[in-house]
Write a structure and sequence with these properties.
By secondary structure, this protein is α+β, with helices and mostly antiparallel strands. The protein has 3 helices and 11 strands; from the N terminus they run ααβββββββββββα. The strands form 2 sheets. Strands 1, 2, 3, 4, 9, 10 and 11 form a 7-stranded antiparallel sheet that branches. The longest helix is centred in the N-terminal third of the chain and has 29 residues. It starts with a helix and ends in a 10-residue tail after the last helix. Bound molecules: FE2/S2 (inorganic) cluster. FE2/S2 (inorganic) cluster binds next to loops.
Amino acid sequence: MADKRSKHKSKYTIDRQIPGAFEGETVTRRRFMTVSSQAAGGIAAASFLLPALGFAIGPIFKSTPEHWETVGTVGMFTDTNYTPVVLTLNPEIGEAGKTTVYVRKYNSAIDTDPYDQGSAFIAISSRCAHLGCPVRWVDAAERFICPCHGGVYDLLGRRVGGPPVRPLDRFYTRVIGENVQLGPRFSVNSELRRFSPRDPGEPLDGIGQYLYPSRPGAQKL
Ligand code: FES
C-alpha cells in the first residue's frame, strides 16, 4: 500500500524535484511557455485562414433571386430553327450585362433526351463553354461555332469539336399568355442532364460535377 502511494506522482513541481520549482507551482514554466506559444500561433493562423475560408465558401450560401424576362411571342419561333434573342442577365452593367440566346420551340423528333420532356421551348446560351466567347448559330451547317478557338457544337448545343469541356448552357423557359419568357441559366453535361450554372471551362461529366461546384455569380454572366 505504502509502495503504491510513493509511486503516485505529486501535482506540485517542487515535489517532483524539478530544478527552479516554486512552492505551489503545478505547471513548469517551460510547459507553460510551450502551450502559450502554440496557442498564440493557432490564433495567428486562424486570423489569416478564417477570413480566406469565409470569402471562398460564403458565396455558396447566397442565392440569386429568380429573374424572368419576356423575349418574344410564341409565334416568333419555330421548332426547326433557332431565333436569336437578347436577354438581360445583369441590368447593373448596361450593355455588357446582355447576351444573345438562341431559342426555338420544343421538337420531339430532335429533343429526345428525357430532360427536355415537357419544355415548350429550348433556349441555348451563346456563351462558349470553353472560355466564354460568344458562339454563333450557323443554320446551313446546323452547328454553333465559336470564333475564338474553333469550338463546335451540334444542334442541341453538345460539343462536337474543339476545346470546350461541356455542352452550351441553357435557360429555363415558360409561356405566360402569348409571351415566351426566359428564366435562370443552367448548365448541362454531355447527356443534357441539368446542373446549377457553372463557369466556362468547368466540366460536368464524371468527377467534374463535384470538383467545380456552382457559384451564384455564374447566373449573372
Ligand atoms: S472560347 Fe470558344 S473555343 Fe475557346
